[in-house]
Amino acid sequence: MSDVLDRPDIGHNADDHLKVVGTRPIRPDGADKVTGRAAYGADFNMPGQLVGKVLRSPHAHARIVSIDAKKARALPGVKAVITGADFPNLADEFHEGGEAASNLRDMAMNVIARDKALYHGHAVAAVAAISSAIADEALALINVTYEVLPHVVEVEDAMAEGAPLLHPRMFTEGLEAKPDKPSNVAKRNRIARGDLDAGFAAADVIVEGRYTTKATHQGYIEPHATVASWAADGQCNVWSSSQGQFMVRTYCAKVLGKEISDIRVTPAEIGGGFGGKTVIYLEPLALALSRESGHPVKMIMSREEVFRATGPTSGAVMHVRLGAKKDGTLTAADVELKYQAGAFPGSPVGAGSMTALACYDIPAFRITGYDVVTNTPKVAAYRAPGAPISAFAVESAMDDLALKLGIDPIALREKNAVHNGTKAAYGPTFQNIGYVETLQAIRDTEHYRTPLGPNQGRGMAVGFWFNVGGESTAAVNINEDGTAVVVTGNPDIGGSRASMAMMAAETLGIAVDKVRPMVADTASIGFSMLTGGSRTTFATGMAVVQSAEKVIAELKRRAALIWDVNVDHVMWKDGSAWCLDPAKADEKPLSLEAIAGQSARTGGPITGQTSLNAQGAGPGFAVHLCDVEIDPETGHVTVLRYSAAQDVGKAIHPAYVEGQIQGGVAQGVGWALNEEYIFDRDGHMENAGFLDYRVPVASDLPMIDAILVEVANPRHPFGAKGVGEAPIVPPLAAVANAVRRATGVRMADLPLSPPKIRAVLDAKGG
Amino acid sequence: MSQLDYLAPVTPEEAVRALGAAGARPMAGGTDLLVQLRAGRTRPDVIVDLKRIAGAIGVRQEAGGFVIGAATSGAVLGEHEALVKAWPGVIEAANLIGSTQVQGRATLAGNLCNASPAADSVPAMIAARATCVVVGPGGRREVPVEAICTAPGKTSLSPGEFVLEIKLPPRPARASDAYLRLIPRTEMDIAVAGAAVNLVLDAQGVITEAHVGLGAVAPTALLVPEAGQALVGSKLDEAALARLDAAARAACRPISDKRGTAEYRTKIAGVLARRAAAIAYKRAGGAA
After folding, report:
1. Banded pLDDT at A627 (limits 50, 70, 90)
2. Residue-number span of the structural domain to which B265 is assigned
């Protein structure tokens, strides 16, 4: 069906009528989370469950010659041992998730290696045993014979002639001519417009740079965890922490060769995902172990396993060349992006390319992206996948351009800004965007005018994210006491329960505490795409509002029955039905509670359900301003002050929108300053723990001032745009630009850790 | 199947006997041992918990100095006013370890005997000229703190021996200390380099005694006598600070690893020594 209904006149397009949307009630899941009662993936248990553990490759690249599990199987207490041979071989099949398409064959081979282990930590076998200690002992008894192969970690090394090949039958896609030799470059994509040579020829100034970023992990606090049960009749139940129970169901069915109706997935509370829980790792292993053992199997990753075998996002090498007139008008841009994909194709270089110049109106540009496999964990989506990386390069170059021309960096962005009607670099024509308003919001801050002290610098950067819609189902069920339950299929990773309840309450005209939002299992609500792409408040929210509107239509019909009037003579307002029939002028309004209380006599339960494929998600623009202070003797960077403005369409729950912005900034600052995968010469990650993989702690960050700019998205009933991803796009460059202005030196290689900064200052002779 | 036993002796003698068993490991706060156990980096057969030994938790003043029981947590140390007043550098180093939660358990003795070159409290204890009371099958001995660690993860303790107490010496007037470390973050991190300085001044503010300890710049925390000597006789003028910086750097024998390059660590050791000296000098009543 269409995603837009004829909407009853409940006044929800005019803000001054809003009673719930735009307020800040306490989240429905808050008490459970702060008291420790919320049930996360590892909190679920089944009677008779076994402990499942994974044997992982000790080599970054190796042929698996043989696996001998006889001794492990013979160990008392071991109930099952599985290897890649216990799974069907799949053909290439692409599946569109919420963030990016996944090749199911690759996903299956990432879940458990077949003929080759492609990274240190790649799952090779798994065991189920009656205790954790026995499972550990069993892993040690599995004898795997490897033929160790040369490996490659860095993206440009993997692209080089003669590099060790991960997939000898992989040929680069997207070239003019089909290559005759296999390559680690899975794909080259290109977006171009205009005459690039003429553009650079017309430029008065040109800036150019090479920029690099390291692989970084999403860093969710909750490690992956699941309990799976494969019953004797083949019916499967899975409990797991993920960004989409339907995603888990689909992928498990494919990887195991099951029908979808045989698998029911119940979502646990999720302790952070940031895109990293849009794929599966443990669930098919736990199911196969349950099938083999006849018992439910519980599996929990350690933090070390999370680092070695899940996530991260790409490390990258980039080149940017910008040409501009003296007045700052961009004439040409040439952007080259090389992204690590990890062990299988599918880096976010496509999105990195599409977003790279999305904030700019440039007559001539070329963006070339390379998706490159490396002997590192297969990358997973990470909050605006690919966009922070390319934005780091482009926004660093823009800052150099501003410095070279002596132009205010906001003015430079304004001069080249996209507007409504501009054809975006990635194709579509922008409508209803709030980019220049967001630039203006930062210009208007007191922050922007505050003088800086010694060793301090102020950087700004902009960022773009598409936001998506997609398939969602929601149900609104009215209870006999007049309260309501809102049922959706989207795990709540960013406060979406609150926004669902608020949109339903606003539409129905009742108090938000009368609405209880639920995230249901796959058997209890229709299909929804996973929580990702900043889609839930937009798309699932649209389904909630439409379901509430169906409920209102039914409530009006029931009221008409009670009053014995034509339904056209019933109006819904402020949570009550009002009789407009002149012949029945004495009828008092009937509240939702009153109608619900007699629903049995008027036709039974009152419910509304909507399934839709939402289109028209409004893109998000973010403009960030960051002050840093450098300790010139140690190279330590302190983030002193941070302001982040963003066009959010309409903030359904402003506090949780601000929280999304602050969270994105926190992750981006960590990416800029200290987070990185460090590999030794054997391709082993050296810092697989939170001690040496340094996400920021609270005291590393100042209060982050979130500024909400509301340019409504007319496709959404309340004007909402996705908000969760855009805020991680600018911080890498905002921090780097602030460091540039504090030190006078452009640092183009992230992270900007203290030893690097001290070395740069020493080289400068400071 | 491996098995893990837990013993909680109540006297030092019982503890010595318990530690005589094969695969026995002493545990003070357990903030290193339990983490290593969970990560599979150590597989003891017996954990001998020292916390129930009489006097193991607590601080007593004795002969003008302080005696700190092996299982005394950082939180307890931080609340001991006389101790903080006398040895602010040692206590600030102890209180930097881990997080607030870890401070409820982490101990000086444990920090020392874990034998990490980057342990925060060890350079501070070394600069303070602290000693350890070691008990074992051969009886009791008292050794300087810097005699305990011999290499990363290795100590000079014989089988069955453990540190029962740490002693901080009496304080003259116009004396104080300070500890600084460099971490990429602001807390919950491990030192890339650390420096402790302990000073005694005369009535004119001239430094009469100075001790400098460095962490994370060699296989063990270092006592650097040349660095201390660089300050003696000065009022911490620029020249003295430059001598201190140079002496500290000269003593460094660091490795390059994921936490920092050898070159960076060496430079930072000098920077931190200078800054710690300035803090200690001011705390001791010297005019800044």
Report:
1. very high
2. 175-283
